[in-house]
Design brief:
The complex is a heterodimer. Chain A is built from 5 helices and 5 strands, in the order E-H-E-E-H-H-E-H-E-H. Chain B is mostly helical. Chain B is globular and about 60 Å long. The chains are: A alpha/beta, B mainly alpha. The interface between A and B is large, with 59 and 56 residues.
């Protein structure tokens, strides 16, 4: 099983999703003063969305900082994004942006802390996804 | 003798909570006014609604106006004395003002589409409708100065993230039938704002909640669920009053359950309503996000080929590749 890397701000929605997912996952630091984790294995990134009404600023600066490291981008296999459907076409837009910037697939989008179905679909989806990667 | 406290200027270069600036930036970037939306293009479409459908629409919008008015003049200001940072107070003034813009927007819709007498009737109706008045009373009761700061926030999040949705349903329904599409554009701007308001107030709730003792936490949580049940009870009655005549009540209720769960998530709690009764009509979901790629589960696609996003504009200078 490969890794999950995720960002969750102090609102804790993504953190709660990760806890219910029950898979090993590394959290990116909240502040840019803290060191980034060292990634050695292929991983899927889970990122919330912070876009305004035009889709700007969708990806948190800490996630960008992490992806600016070329070695981290090389191991990135896919992205899962969260958001709020109230944002319409820009719902979970971080997934779209990261997918395009890093040339990796956007695997799933969910709202806030996710529903039980979201948790199950991501768990099963990741299992299938990693099998195909090997 | 009590001393007057030192007057303090807000310094945005010294933040105690990064979230305040994040939300300030998001809210100010999202600022809009109803004049931005060409509502008059909906005049021909308005004429295709039956008299009963027109009356329903005016009443629904009047009910929404009432909630926005409460949030503008009482709800958001009531949270200010409890603010833990000066920046939070500033964000709350923005929230209060945007609620005034929302309330004002419905009047723009009315003046564009409706006759004055019909609108006056609806405003009278809003003062006489027992369910609308009862839910307003429940929320206002918690906004009193003496109320616990976290109870005020709970009431505020329920108003922002739950109570609006019995009303938002209708313009999304009309839009899914290619009716009142410009009005729906305006409502979507409101829906977007309310998401940020509910998220931010819910976030501040969580900060206050986590420092409470276990017993206090339990009390606040019990209060939140009890208030949600009371509001839900009134919302179902209000919904039936309005939507039974056009046979949409059951569909609206699915939307209410779905949004009640999101309100609870904003507070950091788990959803209450099982997913089996949160099955929002796909036409309503599509109407919430027009032009969106509605497939958000790429895992269940063909399997071997996942779509990679097309190039999107990322003006953010932080990316360095």
């Amino acid at each position: 099983m490969a890794e999950l890397v995720y960002f969750s701000s102090a609102s804790g929605n993504t953190q709660r999703f990760i806890e219910r997912l029950g898979l090993p996952a590394q959290r990116l630091p909240l502040s840019d003063a803290e060191p980034l984790p060292i990634i050695r294995k292929p991983y899927v990134l889970i990122s919330p969305t912070y876009a305004d009404g035009e889709g700007r600023g969708a990806v948190h600066k800490q996630v960008i900082r992490f992806l600016n490291v070329a070695a981290n981008r090389e191991l990135l296999r896919g992205v899962i994004a969260s958001g709020n459907r109230n944002f319409g076409a820009f719902f979970a837009h971080a997934g779209t942006v990261i997918s395009a910037k890093c040339g990796c697939p956007c695997l799933y989008k969910f709202e806030l802390a996710g529903t039980q179905s979201d948790v199950e679909r991501v768990r099963q989806g990741l299992e299938k996804f990693w099998k195909q990667q090997h | 003798m009590t001393q007057t406290p030192v007057a303090r200027a807000v310094n945005w270069n010294r933040l105690q909570d990064e979230k305040d600036l994040e939300i300030w930036n998001r809210l100010t970037a999202n600022f809009w006014l109803p004049e931005k939306v060409p509502l008059s293009n909906d005049i021909p479409s308005w004429a295709t609604l039956t008299a009963a459908e027109q009356q329903l629409t005016i009443r629904v919008f009047t009910g929404l106006t009432l909630l926005d008015t409460i949030q503008n003049t009482i709800g958001a200001p009531a949270l200010m004395p409890d603010a833990t940072t000066p920046h939070e107070e500033a964000v709350l003034t923005n929230i209060a003002f945007m609620e005034a813009v929302h309330a004002r927007s419905y009047s723009s819709v009315f003046s564009t589409l409706c006759r004055t007498a019909e609108v006056d009737d609806a405003f009278r109706w809003s003062e006489e409708n027992e369910h609308l008045q009862a839910k307003s009373r429940l929320v206002l009761e918690e906004y009193r100065a003496a109320s616990h700061p976290l109870k005020k926030k709970v009431a505020s999040v329920f108003l922002e993230s739950f109570l609006f949705y019995s009303g938002f349903y209708l313009p999304m329904h009309w839009s899914s039938r290619a009716k009142l599409t410009n009005t729906a554009d305006l409502i979507r701007l409101i829906i977007r704002d309310e998401a940020v308001h509910g998220y931010y107030i819910g976030y501040k709730f969580q900060r206050g909640f986590e420092v409470l003792s276990e017993a206090e936490r339990q009390e606040i949580k019990d209060f939140a669920f009890a208030l949600l049940f009371d509001l839900y009870d009134l919302e179902t009655k209000y919904t039936q009053d309005l939507y039974d005549p056009i046979g949409l009540s059951e569909d609206v209720k699915q939307f209410l359950h779905y949004n009640a769960n999101k309100a609870l998530m904003n507070l950091g709690f788990e959803g209450l309503f099982p997913e089996s009764i949160c099955q929002v009509n796909p036409a309503i979901m599509a109407s919430l996000s027009p032009n969106a790629d509605e497939n958000h589960d790429f895992f269940s696609g063909s399997g071997s080929s996942y779509v990679i996003g097309k190039a999107v504009a990322t003006e953010d200078e932080d990316w360095d590749f």
